C-alpha cells in the first residue's frame, strides 16, 4: 500500500514538473497575464485611488468585494470554532 | 547566483517537509514546519512578492505559536 | 492557558516588547498605502501581541481580551467593512465604491480614505479570530 501510494505521488510530481516547464519565467513582461490586465492597473491605479502601493489598491479597491468575502469567511470560521469546540462548556463561561 | 539560492531553498523545503511528515515527535514537526514557512517567505521575497512574503512570515509565526500551545496539552510523541 | 509560563525574565521581556509590537502593527496598517502591509498583517500582529501576553502571564494577563471580547472584535470588524460598503451605496454609488463618499475633496482621496477604513475593519476581524482560536485551543478541558 505504501509502495503504491509512493508510485502515484511520484507520477503526479513528474506531471506537475512537466506542466511547470511551460510556464513563463519569473518577471516576463510578455506573459499573457502581463499583457492585458496589468498595464491598465499600472497606468491608472494612482490616478484613481491616490494609493502608491498597487497591491493595496487592487486588493482593497478594485477587488474589494473579494476581500469582503474573505473577511466574512474568516469571521464565520471563528464563530464556527466557538460552536464546535466550546459547546461542551457551560454557558456562563463563554 | 539567484537561481542557485532558490534551488537550495527549495531543496531545504523538500527535506523539511519529508522529515516533518515522517517524524514521531510532534515538536520536531512543528519546528520543521516553521523552517519550511520561513524558506517559502524568502522565496516569495526573491520573486518580488513582498506582500505575500510578509503575510507568510506572520502566519508562519502565528501557526507555530498555536501548535506549540496545543502540543503542551496533548501527548508529544506518537506511541508507535 | 490558565497559568502561563511566566518566569520573571519572560515577564520583563514581554513588558518591554509589547508596546513596540503594537506600534509596529499600527504602522503596518497605516503604511499599507505606501509599502507592503495592510489589514490582514496588522490584525495578525495585534492578535499575536494579545496571545503573547496570554502565553507569558496566563489567564489574567494585562492585555486580557477573552473569548467574548474576541467575538465582539471579529464581528465588529466585518460589520465596519459592510457598513462602509453600504454607505457608498447610500450616497449614490455602487456597493463598495468609496469614491462617492463625502469625506474628501477629490474622489481619489476619498478612495484612499475608504481603503484605510476597510483595512481597519479587516484588522479587527483578523485580530478577533486569532484571539478566539488561541483561547479555545488552550482553555478547553482546564475546568477544575
Description of the molecule:
- The complex is a heterotrimer of chains A (94), B (80) and C (144).
- Chain A has five helices and no strands.
- Chain A has 94 residues and is an all-alpha fold.
- The longest helix of chain A is centred in the last third of the chain and has 22 residues, at 64-85.
- Chain A starts with a helix and ends in a 9-residue tail after the last helix.
- By secondary structure, chain B is mainly α.
- Chain B contains three helices and no strands.
- Chain B has helices at 2-22, 26-47, 50-71.
- The longest helix of chain B is centred in the middle third of the chain and has 22 residues, at 26-47.
- The model of chain B has no long low-confidence stretch (mean pLDDT 89).
- Chain C is mostly helical.
- Chain C has helices at residues 8-30, 39-57, 67-90, 107-139.
- Chain C is elongated, with a radius of gyration of 18 Å.
- Chain C starts with 7 loop residues before the first helix and ends in a 5-residue tail after the last helix.
- The mean pLDDT of chain C is 85.
- The chains are: A mainly alpha (94), B mainly alpha (80), C mainly alpha (144).
- Chains in contact: A-B, A-C, B-C.
- At the B-C interface, helix 3 of B face helix 2 and helix 4 of C.
